[in-house]
Amino acid sequence: MKIPFEKYNPSWRKQFQSIKNELEESIGFLHPEIEHIGSTSVEELSAKPVIDMMIGVKDEKELDEIPSLLRGQDYVYYEKYNEDMPYRRFFIKLTDKPHNLGLPEVIYSKDEIPEKIHDHQFRKAHIHVIPVSSEHWLRHIAFRNYLRTHPDVRREYQQLKEELSTKEWFDGNDYNQGKDSFIKREERKAVQWYLTQHKE
């Protein structure tokens, strides 16, 4: 499969805000921090047109409250990732309710993932639920802010993404592996920069 790749679209910010408002109706009583991350959050950066979002909860005990709160809406919970990434809960927001697309509300294992869900045209957003105290929360926010404020790095990332968009990939995870070495290198720099910027 080829990963959809579009020039930066200002409507991505509006889409994020709309989904954030919707999430706050369901989980607002937990007082989460909801952030727009990934390439769609960085002006001038091309991206696949799926909004990446992070929901920051106070501690790990709240991670398992989220799935039941989103059940029955247009989200699919990828429980299969919990074992490898116990610090995170992952959801896909679909373009319609799961049952209308012939999909289950919970994806348990790799074998049970319907082929349709690999197709990005059925996805509106990828949602990562992470404690705000986690290093993973820090690195995502730092990398986003670093790309927003470092045009040379942003241009290098854009070039890499343009090159990768021409290739065939098994799925989105396979595509992400193609960006892995760049992201890990620049994330380390971004975290150091971010911590320096936020010294008290």
TrEMBL record:
A Pfam family (short name) is: GrpB
| Gene3D superfamilies, A to Z | Beta Polymerase, domain 2 (3.30.460.10)
Highest taxon above the source species? Bacteria
The cross-references to InterPro entries, in alphabetical order and at most eight, read: GrpB/CoaE, NT_sf
UniProt organism field: Chryseobacterium lactis
Instruction: Tell me the protein's name.
Output: GrpB family protein
